[in-house]
TrEMBL record:
Domain named CobW C-terminal: residues: 259-350
Name listed for the protein in its UniProt record: Cobalamin biosynthesis protein CobW
Source organism superkingdom: Bacteria
Family recorded in the similarity comment: Belongs to the SIMIBI class G3E GTPase family. ZNG1 subfamily.
Pfam annotation, one family: cobW
Keywords from the named record: Chaperone, Hydrolase, Nucleotide-binding
Reactions mediated catalytically: GTP + H2O = GDP + phosphate + H(+)
Species this protein is from: Pseudochelatococcus lubricantis
Any coiled-coil regions, as ranges: none
Length: 350
């Protein structure tokens, strides 16, 4: 990675905004970028819809020297697009006051956040002179798109779009997904290891009509994308953001009330596989968009990180429970409003 590309532009610190629907692979990408940018001092703002900060924990456990714990600011419990003034601006102040000074800031939005209001905040006088948006990266979950989980029937959507580029959908998942890619300067299709050749090509064909020709689409398996491709774009996106049409453009205020999130507390589990099986069953039975958390496994001094994005469940022990923590199992569940909490709790506890 050319670290010079990360140096401040005209005295302003470049910020890369990483957007993408729930579970697309944003945190995985950031972990990878951190490992490649050893010569630069980084800071991260990580935002989550649910009220338990998991991504911040994951990133802190990377223990990367050029991005120490103090440089990772977590904004949980809401979407950054709605809390720009209250949460994001003060977080930026804290980061810009850090010593040594940071060279580049990575901002991971929640999977339900709309990037446009966040980029617009970079036009505010108090922010404008100090930072600039280097680029907006949208991470797209390849299998989710191929399976119609983030945009119903990609082929039909494409035909619809070709007929009317400003078409509005009532599906909140599709709207969030489309607003995220509408703001992108670079699209990273994740999880292509889970796709065949034909599906990969189809995903790219589906995305292309949504994007201006200059926007590249690159594949990234497990977040492995060359930092020189993703960072140092130098685009000053805040000056162009009004040109990017999104579904929420005409809303003075938008809500995320189509979505719901809650935390499920469970007793210690006997084996990770048992919990993974119950999570799979819950995802299959109910319309869960994302589930993630930490679990206490009986007799284990290690914390189990467990997460599901769509039908796939991943789990691994990420670190020992620390002396000041009580080992426990807490899972954040995100779904559409009206998701059947009682049914999910029953399946997870079974
Ligand atoms: N097979 C495969 N799994 C991946 C890849 N990238 C990410 N994942 C897995 O997908 C899940 C979600 O990844 P994250 O990086 O946490 O996604 P995210 O976008 O940060 O999730 P939210 O912040 O909850 O929206 C995790 O279980 C990852 O291990 C990939 O390229 N291939």
């Amino acid at each position: 990675m050319a670290d010079s590309a990360l140096s401040a532009t005209r005295g302003r610190v470049p910020c890369t905004i990483i957007t993408g629907f729930l579970g697309a692979g944003k945190t995985t990408l950031i972990r990878n970028l951190l490992e490649q940018t050893g010569g630069s001092r980084l800071a991260i703002v990580v935002n989550e819809f649910g009220d338990v900060g998991i991504d911040g924990e994951i990133l802190r456990s990377c223990g990367v020297e050029n991005c120490p714990q103090d440089n990772i600011v977590e904004l949980a419990n809401g979407c950054i697009c709605c809390t720009v003034a209250d949460d994001f601006a003060p977080a930026l102040d804290r980061i810009l006051a850090l010593e040594p000074k940071v060279d580049h800031i990575l901002i991971e939005t929640s999977g339900l956040a709309l990037p446009k209001p966040l980029v617009q905040a970079f036009q505010w006088p108090a922010i404008r002179g100090r930072v600039t948006v280097d680029g907006v990266i949208a991470v797209v979950d390849g299998p989710a798109l191929a399976e119609g989980r983030v945009a119903a029937d990609p082929a039909a959507l494409e035909t619809q779009r070709a007929a009317d580029a400003s078409i509005d959908h009532d599906d909140p998942v599709e709207e969030v997904f489309e607003d995220q890619i509408a703001c992108a300067d670079l699209v990273i299709v994740s999880k292509t290891d889970l796709l065949g050749e034909a599906d990969r090509a189809r995903v790219e064909e589906t995305l292309r009509p949504h994007l201006p020709p200059a926007v590249r689409i690159v594949a990234g398996v497990n977040g492995k994308v060359d930092a020189a491709v993703a960072l140092g774009l130098g685009l000053g996106v805040e000056d162009d953001i009004e040109n990017r049409r999104t579904h929420h453009d005409d809303e003075a205020d938008h809500e995320h009330d189509e979505f719901d999130s809650f935390v499920v507390e469970l007793p210690a589990v006997a084996r990770p596989e048992d919990l993974a099986r119950r999570i799979s069953a819950a995802v299959e039975a109910e319309n869960i968009l994302r589930l993630k958390g930490f679990a206490h496994v009986e007799g284990k001094p290690l914390r189990l990180l467990v997460q599901a994005a769509g039908p796939r469940v991943d789990h691994y022990f990420d670190r020992p429970w620390s002396a000041d923590e009580t080992p426990r199992t807490r899972l954040v569940v995100i779904g559409l409003k009206g998701i059947d909490r009682a049914a999910i709790e029953r399946i997870l506890a079974a």
